[in-house]
Amino acid sequence: MNTARIAFYLALGAGATIFSIGAVRAARHSREVRRPTALELLIGAVVAFFDTLGIGSFAPTTAIFKLWRIVPDERIPGTLNVGLTTAAIAESLIFVTTILVDPKLLVSMVAAAAAGAWMGAGVVTRLPRRTIQFTMGAALLIAGSVFTAVNLGALPGGGTAMALVGWKFELAVAINFVLGALMSAGIGLYAPCMITLALLGMHPLAAFPIMVGACALVQPVASLRFFQTGAFAWGPSIGLAVGSLVGVFIAAYIVKSLPLMTLRWLVILVIAYAAFAMLRSAARGGSA
């Protein structure tokens, strides 16, 4: 195991430890901590299942929370980052180990995304409800458009490279910094990261360890900000955290693959309706 990969695992362990300590401290000072409902556990399992198969979890979870009014709109970004951290760490351990990608690129893109998340979360926690609704509504529309383009074959399938050099390396790292910051606002990293790497000529499989590795560090970093402000929902977060581990295990070791095109069309319909509902709420001045 080379130095870069060792550094990644050490950073992952540190991130998981810091996240756990932050969660315990936040719980001790909060009166809102409660057990998750069966529905919240089920949501965690389902979205993490699809996430492990490459669909992503932020957009579908946002849609579910909005449609069923499980989490207030302004607390959705924090709940996504806090609740789905355990799934990101589990997926990272699976994919970084099984898929060989340039360790230097992996570590650089993951570190850039984590740095962006720290800055982004500090901004998001201070945003008013209406701004968050507009942001997440736009994010859902973008996610739905990306899924549609993928299903229609309008986006590139990628090349064969497992590494990047020169300006391509620098551009990929810079873009991941921005994507890390956007994750703090509830905008998923999976689709834009995969598209970026495909446009730069990388093999589609190379995106998986980079995507999950970035999320495994971005989400704990962003969560520290949300722990400080309390801008997340405890019950749904715990439900996502516990339920998602089941979903990751089933997808990675039992199912392994599904007809993703059909599933994406279903996700697109849900996301489109949720985007409309989020933007409508924002247009009404932040009311539901």
What are the salient characteristics of this protein?
288 residues, mainly alpha, 76% helix, globular
Short synopsis of the structure:
The protein is built from twelve helices and no strands.
Rg from alpha-carbon coordinates: 18 Å
Distance, first to last CA = 51 Å
Unreliable sequence segments: none
**Rough shape?**
globular
Total strands: 0
Pattern of helices and strands? HHHHHHHHHHHH
Q: Residue-averaged pLDDT, rounded?
A: 86
Share of residues in helices: over 70%
Q: What about the largest sheet? A: none
Q: What is the number of helices?
A: 12
Structure overview:
By secondary structure, the protein is an all-alpha fold. It has one domain. 76% of the residues lie in helices and 0% in strands. It is built from 12 helices and no strands. It has helices spanning 3-28, 38-52, 58-68, 76-83, 85-98, 103-124, 129-151, 166-183, 190-199, 204-229, 234-255, 260-283. The longest helix is centred in the first third of the chain and has 26 residues, at 3-28. The chain is globular, with a radius of gyration of 18 Å.
